[in-house]
Amino acid sequence: MKKRLDHILVEQGLAESRSKAQTLIMTGNVLINNQPITKPGTMLTPETEITIKNQLPYVSRGGTKLKGAIDHFKIDFSQQVILDVGASTGGFTDCLLQEGAEHVYCIDVGKNQLHEKLQNHPQVTWKEAFHVDKLTPQTFGQIFDWIVMDVSFISIRKVMPYLLSCLSPKGQMLILFKPQFEVERKHLQNGVVKNKEVREKTLQDLIDQLKQTYNLTNIIHTDASITGPKGNQETILWIQL
Fold this sequence. Notes:
29% helix; 7 helices; globular; 2 domains; Structural Genomics Hypothetical 15.5 Kd Protein In mrcA-pckA Intergenic Region, Chain A; seven-stranded mixed beta sheet; alpha/beta; Rossmann fold
């Protein structure tokens, strides 16, 4: 009986989770007959010979997205102290540590999500079951020169005041724009924003609003290096005060 490729990778111990399996596949690191298979839903028999070209460098696919933006913008995170909002498994945090960050402070509304290798890491401080609307400079007793964010089920518009309250006067942010949480519901097809014009207009409207409301005039962006799990094309914003 044939099964999805991402399921097979997990069952055979080639990937730690389905999310990691999907990232391996979508980044071209899963080979069948020496050819990359890039669709997680590809149906194969469990007996199919599978080769993993390169294992994932981070604890989750978020790290791959952030690394793509870091390389694109040529940002140096060496010795930086950073706030990671919406840390989840810790993909962004893992990436930042590998990029030379001095310390990463993490918050996430979920529980028991941060990867075990980061939970006891000496350069990581984390708070779970912590909603961003509770975020203040007193949360960690400081403000930050850098904030990174990857959140779901909430608009960036609603989160921005809390981020800015914890950002230093010359601070910077890298924020993942997820169109499915910014557009009107009518533009979603099974959770995916398929209309490129709608996605781009929604992004531009957001940028315009951030500029007008918060005087954030220095905003540039780039497409995320890999899509979201369902195929949404995401964007990373670089905001500099």
